[in-house]
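Design review, sub-item: ligand-bound model
Attendees: FS, YL, KQ
YL presented the inputs for the pyridoxal-5'-phosphate complex:
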Amino acid sequence: MNKIVYMDHAATTALDPKVLEVMMPYLTYEYGNAGGIYSLGRNAGEAVHVARAQLANLLNSTPDEIYFTSGGTESDNWAIKGVCDARKKYGNHIITTAIEHHAVLETCKYMEKHGYEVTYIPVDENGLVNPKDIEQAITDKTILVTCMHANNEIGTIEPVEEIGKICNDRHIHFHVDAVQTTGHIEVDVERIGCNSLALSSHKFYGPKGVGAMYLKKGSVCTNFMLGGGQENNRRASTHNVAGIVGLGKASELALLNMNEEYNQTIILRDKLIKTIEETIPDCKLNGDRVKRLPNNINFIFKGIEGESLILFLDMAGVCASSGSACTSGSLDPSHVLLAIGLKHEEAHGSLRLTLGKDNTEEDINLVAEKLPGIVNRLREMSPLYNK
Ligand code: PLP
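KQ shared the predicted structure:
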C-alpha cells in the first residue's frame, strides 16, 4: 500500500505510541473503577489523579480546576448551559462570535430558544475578532462571553487575552474554546484570564472520546451530567480511565515537545503556502498570515469544488479537508468562510491542509507536486472557471 500523507490534523490526530503504551494497562488488567476502595480501584483512581495533574500543568491551572469530559463538544455545552443557568439571576445575554465551532453555535441557538439573547460578533476578512466590538456589545444583562482561541478552519488565533481583560473588569464569565490550540501553542488559563475553557484529547495525539473543561475556582457553573459523585460531584459517569490516562500523557508530551513541533511545523506550513501561491493562479490564502496556527493552511481556488479536490487528493494519497470535518458532507458553504466575506461560490472551493508532528518535507513536496495538476484538471472541467 502507498504511504498516506495525512494532512487533516485539525479533524483528528493519530494516537501517539507513547500514549497508547501508558493506556494499555487500563484497557486490560487494570480495569478497576476509579471510585473503588480496593487496590484495583485505587490504582485506577491514582492514574486519574496523575492525569489531572499532567493536564493542569499544561494549562497552568490547579488540578482541582480540571473536570474530565467526553470531549470538546461536551465541555462547550457544559460551560455555556451551566454558566447561563448558574448566572441567570444576573441577566440573559450571551456574546459569542460568528466563527465559533458548531459545538458553541448550536448551544447558543439552544439558549436562544430558552429565553436567552445572543449577540454574534462579526469578524474581519482575516477572521479576527475585534475586542472593542465585544466591549461595545456588552449590556447590563451580559452574563457570558464565549470566544474560540483559534479557528478550526482558517487557523486564525483570536485576541483572547484582551477579551479576557474586558470580561474580568466587568465580572462577566469568559469561556474559551481551546480545542484547536491545546497542546500546540501556549494555553495558559491565567494569562488568558478565562473562567472556563474546553479542550479535546484527540486533537493533540491523545485518544478520542475524552476531553476536559477547566473551570476557574470560584466561577459558577451548574452541573451538566447528573448521576454519581464523580469529578468532585460535578460530572457524573464512571471515569474513562484509559482515556483520561491517555489525555494526561498527551498533555505531558505536548509540554515537552511544543517548541520543537511548533518550529518544525511552521517551516513546512510556510513552504507549502509559498509554493501553492507561486504555482497555482487564482488562489487565495484564508485566515490571518501572522496570527495563525502553526499547522494551518487554508486556500480557496477559484472555479472549483472543494469536495472534488479532496477526492482527487485522496486518489493521490493525501488526506485533506474542505471546510471543517464536521461540516463536510453538507452542501452548505462553511459559515466561517462566509463570515470572512467570501461569496457562496468562492466558499465552495476551499481546501484545508493541517499539518502534524509526523509530516515531513517529503509530504510537503508531494502535495506541492500533485496539487497544481489536480486544480488544473478540475478547472478544465469547470463551467465556472474562465481563465
Ligand atoms: N471546538 C472546536 C474549535 C473544534 O475544532 C472541535 C472539533 O473539531 C470541537 C470544538 C469539538 O470537539 P470534539 O469533536 O472533540 O467534541
